[in-house]
Design goal:
elongated; about 0% strand; Helix Hairpins; about 190 residues
Length: about 190
């Protein structure tokens, strides 16, 4: 008994409000005719799934590669495409040690190259995370296919960037180690 009383107390305001705000079928039909009349002269664009599949999406994150002229560092510029020949190594030690300014310049160049490679790896890792997040957030399979393609392309770029970062770090370490060995006095036992 108590439940039916509560139910009726709940239903009474809902019923009364529906009577106050109700529209007749004639009013609804009249509004629809007016709406259609206002849209009569306008051009309609229909977008289908096939149209959406043809659209080439831009990447969420674009990372410009810094082009360094080869003559400024004495090495090849960072490759934007896969390198076909191995990059030049650190110059072989000469018979006499390099001047201090040349050592600092070469060390600085190798350090900046390594830092740029590290930054590129971090940006690609961030892009991969964003793509995976976007992939798992979508329900439409056609857009997931496009995102999977972007993920695979970014993964390939990330692997190459990680290899370049390791190369740059090793070149810097070998150069610094070579300079350290050359700068030690000859009286020291090696």
């Amino acid at each position: 008994m108590r439940a039916t009383r509560r139910f009726s107390l709940f239903l009474l305001p809902v019923f009364l409000s529906s009577l106050l705000f109700s529209q007749t079928l004639a009013e609804i039909a009249q509004k629809e005719r007016e709406r259609r009349a206002s849209l009569k002269g306008k051009k309609v664009v229909v977008v289908t799934n096939a149209d959406l599949a043809k659209i080439k999406k831009k990447p969420a994150l674009e990372i410009p590669l810094a082009e360094v002229p080869p003559e400024t560092t004495g090495q090849e510029a960072p490759a934007t495409t896969p390198p076909e020949a191995p990059q030049s190594e650190v110059p072989a030690p000469a018979a006499e040690p390099l001047p201090e300014s040349a050592v600092q310049a070469t060390s600085r160049d190798l350090q900046t190259r390594w830092e740029k490679a590290k930054e590129y790896v971090e940006l690609l890792t961030l892009k991969m995370s964003a793509l995976w997040q976007e992939f798992y957030a979508l329900n439409n399979m056609t857009t997931r296919d496009a995102i999977q393609q972007s993920i695979s392309e970014t993964f390939i770029k990330l692997e190459k960037a990680q290899e370049e970062e390791v190369k740059a770090r090793q070149e810097l370490e070998t150069f610094l180690g070579r300079q350290k060995r050359e700068s030690t006095p000859s009286i020291w036992i090696r």
